[in-house]
UniProtKB/TrEMBL annotation:
Keyword Transmembrane: yes
Cellular compartments annotated: Cell membrane
GO molecular function: G protein-coupled receptor activity; odorant binding; olfactory receptor activity
Superkingdom: Eukaryota
InterPro entries according to UniProt: GPCR1_Superfamily_Member, GPCR_Rhodpsn, GPCR_Rhodpsn_7TM, Olfact_rcpt
Protein's name according to its UniProt entry: G-protein coupled receptors family 1 profile domain-containing protein
Keyword Membrane: yes
């Protein structure tokens, strides 16, 4: 089998996104719903970022991390929805080899960035509740910048290596069995004689790092809950600032675990539309749920939103 499609005129290598095969009968309603949903994602996340940027009273570590989470949502969804929408209106569902690798990088780095940002947020809440006397001396502007850089650069470096390792593989297939490109789906197209050992090592390293992120979050919440049990004031702070974060963590872990487990071990007998939905959960649920939860649960942000609505209504 020819490793990749070759376009005679442009000499462009490309994949076929087979995930569109069973949804083309619903193109118009699916396009309308997806476009509306993407606009909702853009509105919620951009609004929250602008609110935090222009309101100086929100220039605190927790809100900076929330804005970082929203920016990451914009980054990840922009890597998928515009291409998906254009494919719905097209009869050809191809994606270039380079475009496929780029989308795979964006998808994985977006998901891992979410986890990294939630991890530094857990550390921030741990310091604020369990070490309040040391909080301001430790969480300086420089330390805050370092934590934000860590939450972004770590996933970018990890998945740059991961995608570069995939790019060197000789491929013996052209059909991506979903509506988007993911590194694992490209990896499965590797020829039998291809050396995939470095890719496997890279994947295991990333999984271990993700597990350490989750374990760190669990460790911080064990200490946060122990502290809150002893103090009514800390319980109030926990309800105001930690519930939204803990909900985000649960959603993130659940969605990512389901996605990873299904990609690796899931049945192919399920309808294609359901397979697509399971794969796309991390692009559907967190980008809307995160700004909604933080917007309504964090008191300062909620008050700013309500005051803005009140002023506009006058």
């Amino acid at each position: 089998m020819c490793p990749l499609i070759m376009d005679n005129q442009s000499n462009e290598r490309s994949f076929i996104l087979s995930g569109f095969n069973e949804i083309m009968n619903f193109t118009v309603p699916l396009f309308s719903v997806t476009l509306l949903y993407y606009c909702v994602i853009l509105f919620f996340n951009i609004s929250l970022v602008l609110l935090i940027v222009f309101d100086e009273s929100l220039h605190e570590p927790m809100y900076i991390f929330v804005s970082s989470l929203c920016i990451n949502a914009l980054y990840g969804t922009t890597g998928f929805y515009p291409k998906f929408l254009s494919d719905l209106l097209s009869s050809s569902h191809r994606i270039s080899y380079e475009g496929c690798l780029l989308q795979a990088f964006i998808m994985y780095s977006f998901a891992c960035c979410d986890l990294s940002i939630l991890t530094v947020m857990a550390f921030d809440r741990y310091l604020a509740i369990c070490r309040p006397l040391h909080y301001h001396s430790f969480m300086t502007k420089r330390r805050l910048s370092q934590l934000v850089c860590f939450s972004w650069l770590t996933p970018f470096c990890l998945f740059s290596i991961n995608v570069l390792l995939t790019a060197r593989l000789k491929l013996c297939g052209i059909n991506i069995q979903r509506a988007l490109c993911l590194n694992w789906l490209i990896f499965k197209l590797a020829c039998p004689e291809a050396d995939t050992f470095p890719n496997n090592i890279s994947a295991y390293v990333i999984i271990v790092i993700c597990y350490f992120h989750w374990l760190f979050i669990i460790w911080t919440y064990i200490y946060i809950i122990k502290t809150c049990v002893r103090s009514r004031e800390d319980r109030v702070m926990f309800m105001q600032t930690c519930v939204a974060h803990l909900t985000s963590v649960i959603i993130n872990v659940t969605v990512m675990a389901v996605d990873v487990m299904y990609l690796r071990f899931g049945s192919r007998d399920l309808p294609q539309s359901l397979q697509n939905f399971i794969t796309l959960e991390f692009l559907i649920i967190p980008p809307v749920m995160n700004p909604l939860m933080y917007g309504f649960k964090l008191t300062k942000i909620r008050n700013r939103i309500l005051s803005f609505i009140y002023l506009k209504g006058k």
